[in-house]
């Protein structure tokens, strides 16, 4: 380990910590893994949460390390140590205090999160990071959860298969109010449909409480499920809930009339989920839904998606 890192971390010398920024990134790059391991030891000490000097030293060193990793593009080399430090934060209290101030370990987790997860397009890094990342979704820190959800959504674009093993955890987070993760579900459905199928009714119950972008991601999920003919797992508690969902779908449909791609998604859901015959006890609502669909078609507002037209079903 570089002698300045050894001095600052070994003696927890706050007065010299700032000098780390005077060193070239290439000069300290070989020392980063060892420095991260030393930080893990310091942050795991029994008095770390009350030791302001140690916290300041760790904060400065993490900033210097993550900067060097980015500048030298050496994330894959140091990912194991970085994720190891990140994981150690899960063993500590991450809930904000009464003043909404992050705990010392929540600060560490937040400081290194972007350094790890901005590399969502690097599979070797994501293989290490995602199993740890999803654990932060249920640790009582809303800000960490929100930022984590943003990065997981990006990861789903390129490496949905790595998220698929954690579908159950993701769905539970959504049902607990983390609607941002709805955008992940259409991507992971292909790999892990069953955890989602089990909760389709609960997920659709969220519809009236969602913002329009979130509604669209939920409708995309139902569209994917419809194409896979998995909507037999779908049910409503009452005609009222069915009618309310139909109303939400039609409202979305009319609002996005100029977006053909979005129209196809919503129509696929309506034709598949709500057409008469899908559920006898809801027949009246389903007939009404079919009437609205046919009226819109006659008026030139939309056409049933080819794969869902009555003659093909």
TrEMBL record:
Biological-process GO terms, alphabetical: regulation of signal transduction
GO cellular component, one term: endomembrane system
InterPro entries (UniProt xref): Melted-like
Subcellular location: Endomembrane system
Keyword Secreted attached: no
Membrane topology: Peripheral membrane protein
Primary site of residence: membrane
Single GO MF annotation: phosphatidylinositol-5-phosphate binding
Keyword Iron set for record: no
Residue spans crossing the bilayer: none
Keywords from the UniProt entry: Membrane
Domain of life the protein comes from: Eukaryota
Protein name: Ventricular zone-expressed PH domain-containing protein homolog 1 isoform X3
Organism of origin: Octodon degus (Degu)
Lineage start: Eukaryota, Metazoa, Chordata, Craniata, Vertebrata
Designated gene of the protein: Veph1
């Amino acid at each position: 380990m570089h002698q300045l890192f050894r001095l600052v971390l070994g003696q927890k010398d706050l007065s010299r910590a700032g000098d780390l920024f005077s060193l070239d990134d290439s000069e300290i790059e070989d020392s980063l893994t060892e420095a991260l391991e030393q930080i893990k030891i310091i942050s795991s000490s029994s008095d770390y949460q009350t030791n302001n000097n140690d916290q300041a030293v760790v904060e400065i060193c993490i900033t210097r390390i993550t900067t060097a990793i980015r500048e030298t593009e050496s994330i894959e080399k140091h990912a194991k140590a970085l994720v190891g430090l990140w994981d150690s934060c899960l063993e500590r209290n991450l809930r904000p205090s009464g003043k909404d101030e992050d705990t010392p370990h929540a600060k560490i987790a937040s400081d290194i999160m972007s350094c790890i997860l901005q590399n969502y397009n690097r599979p070797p890094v994501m293989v290490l990071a995602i199993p740890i990342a999803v654990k932060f979704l249920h640790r009582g820190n809303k800000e960490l959860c929100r930022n984590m959800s943003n990065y997981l959504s990006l990861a789903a674009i390129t490496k949905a298969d790595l998220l698929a093993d954690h579908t159950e955890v993701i769905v539970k987070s959504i049902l607990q109010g983390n609607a941002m993760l709805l955008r992940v579900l259409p991507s992971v459905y292909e790999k892990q449909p069953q955890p989602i199928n089990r909760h389709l009714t609960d997920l659709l119950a969220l519809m009236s409480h969602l913002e329009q972008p979130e509604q669209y991601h939920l409708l995309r999920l139902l569209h994917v499920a419809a194409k896979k003919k998995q909507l037999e797992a779908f049910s409503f508690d009452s005609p009222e809930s069915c009618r309310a969902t139909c109303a939400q779908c039609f409202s979305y449909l009319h609002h996005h009339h100029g977006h053909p791609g979005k129209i196809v998604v919503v129509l696929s859901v309506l034709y598949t989920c709500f057409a008469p015959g899908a559920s006898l006890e809801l027949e009246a609502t389903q007939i009404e839904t079919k009437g609205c669909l046919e009226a819109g078609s006659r008026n030139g507002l939309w056409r049933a998606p080819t794969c869902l037209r009555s003659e093909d079903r």
